[in-house]
Structure formats: structure tokens, C-alpha cells
Amino acid sequence: MTITAQRFLITKVGNMDTKQQLEHLLQLQAEARLGGGQDRIDKQHAAGRLTARERIEMLMDPGSFEEFDMFKTHRCQNFGIGETVFPGDGIVTGHGTVNGRIVYVYAQDFTVLGGSLSETMAQKICKVMDLAMKNGAPVIGLNDSGGARIQEGIDSLAGFSDIFLRNVMASGVVPQISAIMGPCAGGAVYSPALTDFVVMERLNSYMFLTGPKVVKSVCHEDVTVEELGGADMHSTQSGVSDYAAESTADAINYIKRLLSFMPQNNLESPPIVPCTDPIDRHSDVLRDIIPANANAAYDMKQVILETVDNADFFEIKEQFAPNLIVGFARYNGISVGIVANQPAYLSGVLDIDSSIKGARFVRFCDCFNIPVVTFVDVPGFLPGTAQEFGGAIRNGAKILYAYAEATVPKITVITRKAYGGAYCVMSSKHLRGDINYSWPTGEIAVMGAKGAVEVLYARQAKASGDAKAYLAEKEEEYHEKVSNPYLAAERGYIDDVIVPSTTRARIIKALGLVQNKRDSNPMKKHGNIPL
Ligand code: HXC
Known about the structure:
This protein is α/β, with parallel strands linked by helices.
């Protein structure tokens, strides 16, 4: 059913008795809930996509959603659009609860003019964002839109800009999460990009600045919608998306899980949940997890799973830069952000992508009072022209900056390598790490023993007659004297060398120790993170 401007305006409520007025209201609500009409709802379903209201229903606790501005309409008269007015326009906005906690939500309604953004829709979005900011609750945006409403021109662009401004103002004040459940093109992508987390539906969604046709005409490249801006690309290559969801239900569950680890706003602490996992649980797996060969890989995820409550780790950006693992977990019911080098992928080296990934995650945790637990096994920064040309210096500095400026509790466990600049970066004592532990297998040095002796003894090795044996002996000596955790422990840069199997208990104790931590940075407008 299409509700035209004419029908919507000529209703004369003044002539109705109370019963008729009520019936009239219910009729208007029913019509508004049809969005762009049953035909377009059917089309949306046939494309395997839910409507805006169905998505909101899936997200919110049953019966908790209350809608704002259901009858707000657009005012544009250009290109005949004044003849077609849909109550609520192309967006459903309001508030409700998710697992008992208030959230504000907006969901673009593709059945109304392709969910294209009008001045009116922007006003509706801004209203919920302003309320969320004032009242300290997260904002969830469910995106499915053809971008700026073409008929409106500047009014639509102004609307987008108003939203962008609020995204920026809300950043670090209330959590903002975006789900991409349909098209998201043009400048419209920047609103999700400004939010804290982005989840994309694998089969239905895409995000790009310009579509395949423009790419073909400008760059002479043939590319499909999925290749250019699909969920898989954004979750593995660009890093725009934190998760490629298999379905709408999967995307919604991801949002709910995310919310469960976060406080409502930057003035609160994350919720503490009852812990059913013994806090002093030892792990024999950790005793033997480090391979005898220092260059052999092992799976750092296992270390994380062995130590966190109930082996429950919620990984973020799992497919992007897997050499660094980031995600949320709990220790004794306390939410933490975990950052860990992954020796099982590229030896856990830090590179451009992993530095950006880690920096952004640490900064999120710092905004929202979530302690950061860091597991370190890192051979250094990835060398090579590709990295240097790509700005490894500028980008590597991001993670350093993020750790240094973070004032949340920071607990660090070095499991094996902590070489060179990467030692400094990974939540070291020098960057205000609160409690820094190492396993006895820790190797804290400028570089690995092999590389070190090759630099130091190249001339002597050549002269010795048996370079290999000479270097092997020196390597052994370097290991003994330098590549261990005890030099750092002697200087107090490591607070203790701990028994690996007790790691969980030690982290929980450390978190308890720093739970009332107060630290600050010098007064300034804001820092100038290397972007
Ligand atoms: C007005 C729009 C619209 C738009 C879609 N519609 N996009 N109306 N403004 N931007 C309308 C269509 O006319 C159609 O109306 C209905 O929505 C459904 O669209 P279809 O094309 O039939 O759907 P589909 O085949 O699924 O294709 C979806 C689409 C396509 C890929 C999104 O509609 C499309 O390419 N739209 C234009 C995308 C675009 O270029 N947007 C501007 C981006 S620039 P009827 O009445 O026929 O059902 C931008 C600048 C933002 O956003 C800058 C911010 C700073």
C-alpha cells in the first residue's frame, strides 16, 4: 500500500469522536508500519532481506522497542516526489533494551525510496543520537540505503553532514555500532566508518565510495559489487568491517555480544558478570605450549582460551591482520580487551595492518574504561620495501601512541619473544604498563640471538675458519646473557617471572590490584596521533 501525501493530510481528526480518533490512530500506525507498502516488503523479502522493523524486533528485548517520529514526513517537492509521502519516511528510529540495557536505534527502510537519506531522515537519526549522548546509551545503526536522496540534493547532503558531526561528537562518549544489511554507497559509508564497530551481512551488503560502473569508466577496471565492497573483502583486506555475518540473525547476535562487554557510556565501567570459572584455575597446557625450537609456531589463541573465564573469547576483526589478535573476554567476570601477537601467523610480526588494528582496539578500550590485557610474542616489525613504502613508520607509530596514551589498567604477559621496537610498543612498562609479567621462556632483547651475533661477530666468524660453529657458540652465549626475561626483571621492567600454568590467577590478581587505577594525560585539546 502506498500512502500518498494527499491521503495523509486530508484526514480531519477534529470531526471524530474519541473512539474514532483512537481507531484513526491505530490505522495510521498500521499504515506507517507498512513503510513503502506490501509490494516493496515482498520484494525485500524475496531478496533475502528483512525490513527495518523486523531487524529492530530481532535486536531488541521482546516488546521493549518504542518508536519516535512515526509520522514525520519529508517536505521535498522536486521531481514529483511531493506526490509520494510515506509516514516515517525511509527510516525507523527509537529506543528499547538489549539484555535489559537501554539502546537507541535507527534502521533504514529500503522499502521507502530505497532507504535513501532525506533531510527528514537525517533529523530523525540526529534526534536519537542526541538523546543517546545526553542520556549515555549506545547507538545502533542498521544500514540499508541507496545513499543521498537524489531529489533532495543539498538537503540530503546537509543531513549526512549533520549525522557525521554527531558520529564524531559521540565518539568516545557512547558506543556506536553499525550493521550493514544492504547497499551502503557514496559518502554514506562514512557514518558507519566513524562508528566503533561495523558488522556486514555476507550475502546482502556492500560498501563502497563509487560503484563498479564508475570504477570501470574512471579506472578501466572490471570488478563486481562483491569484489569491490562485499563483506568478505572488507573483513579481510580493507579492515572496514569487524565481522562478516552469515545472516541477519548472526549480525544481530554479534551486536548483542559486543554490547555485553561494554559500559553504556564513557563515565561507567563495563558490567561485571558472575564468574563460574575458578579464579585460581591452573592450566597444564600452558606449561608445555612454547615449542623447544624458538622459531616454531604455536597458537596464541590457545593461551587466551586457557586463561579467560570459561574459555569464552569474542574475537574482533578475526580475518583482518591475523598476526595480531584482538577481542573481548572476561577475567573473574570483569570485561577486558585482549591484544595478542599470533606466532602462528607471520610469526606474530607487527606490520601496517596489525598496528592499525591494535591501535584502534586499544583506543576503544581506553575510551570506555575496559582494561587491556596484552600477550606478547613478537619478533619485531616486518621489514621490506612494501612495508616501508606503505608507511610502516607512520602506521607502526599508531599502536605505540595508543598504548602510551591509554590510562586504563594495562596488564602484560610476555610468553616468548619481545624484540626491539616491538617490545617497547606492546604495553611495556615504559609506556605505563601497570603490571608486566614474563614467562621463563621470555626473550627480551634488541633482536633474536641469531641476528644479533651475525651483526656483532661477522668479522670474527670469518676469521675463525669455522664460521658456523663460531656463530653457534656466540648465539648460545647471547641467549644465556641477553635473551631471557631476567635482565628486564633485574631492572624492574618486568614485575615478576611467572609460572605459565598460573597465568590466569596472576592476571586476575593483577586486575584486582589496578581496578581503582586513576591516571591521566596532560591537559590538551587532543593529541596528534600519526594518521
Ligand atoms: C532516491 C532512490 C535512491 C536514491 C534508490 N532509490 N536509491 N531514490 N535517491 N539515492 C529508489 C529507486 O528509484 C527505487 O524507487 C527504489 O529506491 C528501489 O531502488 P532500485 O534501484 O529499484 O533497487 P535495487 O535494484 O535493489 O538497487 C539498489 C541500488 C540502486 C543499488 C541502491 O537503487 C542505486 O544504485 N541507487 C543509487 C545509488 C546512489 O548513487 N546513491 C547516491 C550515492 S552518493 P522505485 O519507486 O522505483 O521503487 C551519496 C552522497 C552522500 O550518497 C554524500 C554524503 C556526504
